[in-house]
Amino acid sequence: MELSNIEKLIEKYENAETSLQEEKLLKKYFQQNKVPVHLLEYKAMFSYFDESRAERFTKTIPLKTKKPHWKWASVAAAVLLLVSVYTFNSNSKKMAITNAERIEAEKAYKETQEAFQLISQNLNKGESVAIAGLQKFQNTHNKVFKTNE
Amino acid sequence: MQQAEFLNTVLPLKDKVFRLAKRLLVSVDEAEDATQELFFKLWKNKNKLSKYKSLEAFAMTMTKNYCLDQLKAKRSNNLKLVHSNYKDSNVSLEHDLEIKDSVSKVHELIDSLPEKQKLIIQLRDIENFEFEEIGKILDIKPSAVRVGLSRARKTIRQQLLKQHNYGIK
After folding, report:
1. Transmembrane stretches, by residue range (chain B) (predicted)?
2. B142 within some domain
3. What is the percent of chain B where pLDDT is above 90?
């Protein structure tokens, strides 16, 4: 680009009247090495602008929001629900069994008790008979041996 | 806005956000923190983003407001911004030393501009926004953008010229 044109553009540039396209032309012009001395300040300015524009943000941007892990919470809730339902079910089943069998168990208990009662009565009977027999034996034994002594 | 859309439309703005934040906050660390914070906010509000006409302008406005708030908080805390990152610009070796000096000088000169002019220079000469967009971002008229820009450009040039002449004379 001709120097006179550049100088015109520079004047417009100073008054902030250049368009972005015209500023692009200036930028290109100042990127070359040979620049007249009276335009050196502009070269410095445009070099600085280029340099600044090239600067990049190099750190990472953490986009994962720090909200609680609903996924794991839901898994835990599901497990909890499963366990509680299972235990409740098995508990109530157990209750049903006892309810159903209670009468029968009571009956069996009664029958067993009666049976024991019977045995113990008979045993008692046998015991008293045996003891009476023993007594008799003792008496006769005493009688016999007393006389002998 | 879906995650994929966010990654394609909003995330590429990270460099512009970072550069603007750095222009205002000066320190690289603070600019990085600000960028992360701003993208966290954008991400949280990703469902509301589709209603903005220009996401780019919206992100710039958000960045500007956030950084100015940060600065205000700093100033009221009487804390001075400490910046140790006036790194030497990576100009190619062909440039002579004088130009190299001038380039880093531009950084200092922009830094010493009033806040609004600083923002205008950043948005126009570095990010190449149209006057209307800059007006929207800064909440001023496009004509005011032109005035501020012209002043900023002239100031930078004159200060550089002063420095050069000082070196010569």
Report:
1. none
2. yes
3. 59
Residue span of the structural domain in which B131 resides: 97-168
**Cβ of A14 under 8 Å from any chain B Cβ?**
yes
Three-state SS for B166?
helix
CATH of the domain at B133: 1.10.10.10
Instruction: Count the Cβ atoms, other than its own, within 10 Å of residue B126.
Output: 21
pLDDT tens, residue by residue, A59-104: 888 776 556 677 888 889 999 999 999 988 877 766 666 677 788 8
Whether residues B158 and B108 share a domain: the answer is yes
Nearest CB partner across the interface for B43, out of A47, A57, A65: A65
Residue A103 near chain B (CB below 8 Å):
no
Measured in angstroms, the CA of B78 and the nearest CA of chain A are apart by 29
Contact residues on chain B for A35, CB-CB shorter than 8 A: none
Radius of gyration of chain A (CA): 57
Query: B5, B19, B28, B90: which to substitute to probe chain A, counting the most A Cβ within 10 Å?
Result: B19
Overall number of domains in chain B: 2
Cα gap B142→B130, rounded to integer Å: 9
User: Over the stretch B11-33, which tens digit does the pLDDT of each residue have?
Assistant: 899 999 999 999 999 999 999 99
Q: Based on the domain organization, do B68 and B11 belong to the same domain?
A: yes
Which pair of structure tokens corresponds to residue B56?
């780019």
CA distances from B1 to A68, B60, B61 (A): 21, 19, 20
